[in-house]
Specification:
With about 80 residues, the chain is an alpha+beta fold. The chain has one helix and four strands.
């Protein structure tokens, strides 16, 4: 879905880089959460249910995705 079609405010992490390299999230009126690239605000948005987003956030908080951020991509 084009992010420009999603009404409401987008939220960006306070930890985002000054160059805007971050993702932004928006709550959807019918439920769910939209996610877009802050560098492409008119580009596509991914749509997730509240349950899907909750599962992702739980995994992120517990460090399940930390290995995806390693500098050595050969690991």
């Amino acid at each position: 879905m084009p992010a420009s079609l999603i009404p409401g405010g987008w939220v960006k992490s306070l930890a985002s880089e000054a160059a805007g390299m971050c993702v932004e999230l928006a709550r959807l009126p019918q439920g769910g959460v939209a996610v877009r690239n802050s560098n492409a605000p008119d580009g596509p948005a991914l749509i997730f249910t509240v349950g899907e987003m909750g599962a992702f956030l739980d995994g992120a908080k517990s460090g399940e995705f930390d290995t995806l951020l390693t500098l050595n991509q050969d690991s």
